Amino acid sequence: MTEDVPQGYQSWPFDRGFEPLVGPLYLRLDGSNAKVAFRVASHHLNIRGHLHGGMLMTLIDEAIAIAATHSLGSDAAFATISLNCDFVAPGEKDDWVEAEAELVRHTRRLLFARAQAVVGQKLLVTASGINRVFHSAGS
């Protein structure tokens, strides 16, 4: 299948670590909004042929990190402390899945966010997460 990527998305800018193994992922930065997305391929499916919940959780986790970086700046790093997901509907092969996160609150060391992933108008998952913030000074 040739990748059909909607306008405004760019290839995932990180080429090492875990993310390349689950991709390809795409990123869209639009003003204060950031979205992470991917096209569901065979390797994203569970044994029943639906999008695997673990892949949705990965996408949500990435969306929260990108929203945090986009909002707080690239001098901070983040580690997930808690990620709670409520699965609403299944995704299917060839779906274009988009995730977007919103920062609810942040302190010097903690970041609280909520996120969702959709296919068009179809809600797949809602989530809330808490991340530890690490500043470049080593805090």
CATH class: Alpha Beta
Q: Which residue ranges are poorly predicted, with pLDDT under 50 across at least 5 consecutive positions?
A: none
CATH superfamily: Hotdog Thioesterase
* Sequence of strands across the biggest β-sheet: 1-2-3-5-6-7-4
Overall residue-averaged pLDDT value: 89
Q: How many H/I helical runs?
A: 2
Counted up, domains total 1
How is this structure best described in words?
The protein is α+β, with helices and mostly antiparallel strands and about 140 residues long. It has one domain (about 10-135): Thiol Ester Dehydrase, Chain A (Roll). About 15% of the residues lie in helices and about 45% in strands. It contains 2 helices and 7 strands. It has helices at about 20, 55-70; strands at about 10, 25-30, 35-40, 75-85, 95-105, 110-120, 120-135. The chain has a 7-stranded antiparallel β-sheet with strand order 1-2-3-5-6-7-4, covered by helices on one side. It is globular and about 40 Å long. The termini are far apart. The mean pLDDT is about 90.
